[in-house]
Amino acid sequence: MLAIPKTMRAAVYRGPNDLRIETVPVPRIGPRELLVKVAVCGVCPTDIKKIQHGTVPPPRIFGHETAGTVVRLGARARGFRLGDRVALHHHVPCLDCHACRHRAFAQCEQYKRTGVTAGFEPAGGGFAEYVRVMPFVLPAW
């Protein structure tokens, strides 16, 4: 594995129709989290709408159709190894709440949270070189 830099390049949303390529810190991870080096990220129409219409406050790093390689594991992360190739899903339902029991997953409070970020308010982060993957979107192995 190559050394992980302290900074990375990212497309940072700064307001309606304002995306800038900036140098930002590589995300730090917690004990149950992963750091993934982004290999590819799709462009979702939802992100395009948010960028064009300014429906969320800046700054943010969008991109939630992401795949890459695990380059760092938190001390208590389980089920993954350095070098694993992963596809990330930033919304994961709890499968236990009232909404989930009625298969209304999009109404689950956990599902509404974004669990992948490259910094700032979590927004997917795939338009950056590295992303932090939070434990609530990882399999409970």
Give a quick precis of the structure.
12% of the residues lie in helices and 32% in strands. It is built from 3 helices and 7 strands, in the order E-E-E-H-E-E-H-H-E-E.
List the topology elements.
Blueprint (H helix, E strand, L loop, with lengths): L6 E9 L2 E8 L8 E9 L2 H9 L11 E9 L11 E4 L9 H4 L7 H4 L3 E2 L12 E4 L8
Antiparallel strand pairs: 1-2, 3-4, 3-7, 4-5, 6-7
Low-confidence stretches: none
Morphology call: flat
Indicate the structural class. Answer: mainly beta
* Rg over alpha carbons: 15 Å
Give a short account of the largest sheet: 5 strands, antiparallel
Compute the average pLDDT.
Answer: 94
Span between termini: 25 Å
- Helical fraction equals 10-25%
- Counted by DSSP, the helix tally is 3
Number of strand segments: 7
Into which percentage range does the β-strand content fall? Answer: 25-35%
Largest beta sheet: what is the strand line-up? 5-4-3-7-6
Secondary-structure element order, N to C: EEEHEEHHEE
Which features characterize this protein?
141 residues, mainly beta, 5-stranded antiparallel beta sheet, two-stranded antiparallel ribbon, 3 helices, 7 strands
Describe the structure.
- The chain is mainly β and 141 residues long.
- 12% of the residues lie in helices and 32% in strands.
- The protein is built from three helices and seven strands, in the order E-E-E-H-E-E-H-H-E-E.
- Strand 1 (7-15) and strand 2 form a beta hairpin.
- The two termini are 25 Å apart.
- The mean pLDDT is 94.
